[in-house]
Amino acid sequence: MTKTFLLGASSLLTLLAATPASAQHAGHAGHAMPMPAPKPTAPQPTPPKQAAPKPDRAAATAPDPHAGHDMATPPAADPHAGHDMSATPAADPHAGHDMSAMEHGDHGAMTGALGSYPAGRESSGTAWQPDSAEHRGLMTQVGDWHLMGHADLFGVYSKQGSRRGDDKLFGAGMIMGMARRPVGEGTLQFRAAFSPDPLMGRSGYPLLLASGETANGVDRLIDRQHPHDFVMELSASISQPIGPRSSVFLYGGLPGEPAFGPGAFMHRESIMDSPEAPISHHWLDSQHISFGVLTAGLVLDRFKVEASRFNGREPDQRRWNIETGKLDSTALRASWNPTDSLSLQLSWASLKDPEQLEPGVDQKRWSASGIYATDLGSGWRSATTLAWGRKSAEGHAYDAFVAESSLKKGLWTLFGRGEITENSELLPIDHEDEDHHGEAFRVGKISAGAIRDFAIAPQVKLGVGGLVAVNFVPEGLREEYGKSRPLGGMAFVRLKVG
């Protein structure tokens, strides 16, 4: 599997080297693929003057296409410089465009795989984000297939204080690829994502106040973030328009992401530049690697409703394999993008036996979130997410609240996150306790950091960054941690392709 991961990384870098600059693109939602400059047309010789019949009115009033031009001067090498390409039609209506956008009647903008809206609206799985969210990647076209790929790979040193802290050097991140083509009036898409996380070992990395999953099938990981599986997504979707701004779609993944919560944290523009996982992960988006998902949805312009059947069991401690299981759990989600800058969602899920260490215990989950992303002017850009999640089981309900934001200008990014969770997993499981739940503690965390990117090649950046976190521990846990405000921090580098 390690060889497979390295091969995937090598293939992405090969795509970068092989793709001409005119076929690469990084930018925001709604941008078309860059179009090749039209070949200059040689001037035609002027015919000799001769008597001519009186022209009709239409011909007399038609503008002279050459008026004001010196035809002896060749056109500029880049005739599109300074123009918004998403609004400029090409001489060849098919040149350089995403063919799914053509099928939906939009000749200037790349549309989403699930509907005729800007492609930037689509986040992980079938989740939505603002239309104005960043939409980047290496893009090219081969026949009817539109291809895209990007990678974010981190090298991180984590140091967590207190009696329960630890330190570790590890790698994390993801490599993603997408292939899309029109099918009749609809769109077919395949997507794959892989992570180097399993290389860090089964016990993951130290992260105070985090909990969930297991390293050995017996003990829960506490004050550590579990590694994600090597295969993060293998999915396919197909959509069919049923009106000018409406569509129906099917999405399936092994693994994939059901219709619950906002997009996964590593896809949210508000915090994607941080290598640190949220301690609220298992309230909001831990289902993003579900080994078996089938989702059906309806898009009505800026509204979307969808339902999923999926395998509710979280991945086990074996991170390199593909797991299978019954589609025994259900998720429902309603999404609304009232403006280009705002995305809202409300979702519910019923999970069958999700925790390996709590056999026979089902859960209900709720989530609501809002994501706002906008350009502030003068080169500044901001993105913010506010989210709430609740999970309940055996008469207990636990809430989590999250606020995260990023501020970008040029090659600099500042980011921060604040969280509160009600967590009953911070003390070891008492295996003789039939209730499976320990005492719940309300804990909090604030983290802030920055990253500075350095462009080392077209579409390739190397970033250097760091973050500091303050953890808030209640009275009942202070003896465990040895202090009420333990600190944590990370220093990291990031390779960003696309």
Domain module count: 1
Using the 3D structure, state the CATH architecture.
Beta Barrel
Number of strands: 20
Could you please say which CATH topology applies here? Porin
- Which regions have little confidence, pLDDT < 50, spanning 5+ residues? 1-108
Structural class: mainly beta
Specify Rg, calculated over alpha carbons: 26 Å
Tell me about the biggest sheet?
Answer: 16 strands, antiparallel, barrel
What does the oligomeric state look like here? single chain
Q: What is the CATH superfamily classification?
A: Porin
Helix count from the secondary structure assignment:
5
Task: Give the helix proportion (percent range).
Answer: under 10%
Strand order in the largest sheet: 3-4-5-8-9-10-11-12-13-14-15-16-17-18-19-20
Distance between the ends: 24 Å
Overall mean pLDDT:
83
Strand content: over 45%
Order of helices and strands: HEHHEEEEEEEEHEEEEEEEEEEHE
Classified by CATH, the class is Mainly Beta
Shape: globular
Biased composition (Low complexity): 25-34, 51-65
Protein name: TonB-dependent receptor
Region (Disordered): 25-131
Biased composition (Basic and acidic residues): 94-107
Characterise this structure.
The structure is a single chain. With 498 residues, the chain is mainly beta. The chain has a single domain (2-8, 85-497), classed as Porin (Beta Barrel). It is 7% helix and 45% strand. The protein has helices at residues 2-18, 57-61, 99-103, 281-284, 478-481; strands at residues 25-28, 134-142, 145-160, 167-183, 186-194, 205-214, 220-225, 231-243, 246-253, 293-300, 303-310, 329-339, 342-351, 363-377, 380-393, 396-409, 412-423, 441-457, 460-472, 487-497. The strands form two sheets. A 16-stranded antiparallel barrel has the order 3-4-5-8-9-10-11-12-13-14-15-16-17-18-19-20. It has a two-stranded antiparallel sheet with strand order 6-7. Strand 4 (167-183) and strand 5 form a beta hairpin. The longest helix has 17 residues, at 2-18. The protein is globular, with a radius of gyration of 26 Å. The two termini are 24 Å apart. The relative contact order is 0.13. Residues 1-23 form the signal peptide. Residues 25-34, 51-65 have a biased composition (Low complexity). Keywords: Signal. Residues 35-50 have a biased composition (Pro residues). This is TonB-dependent receptor.
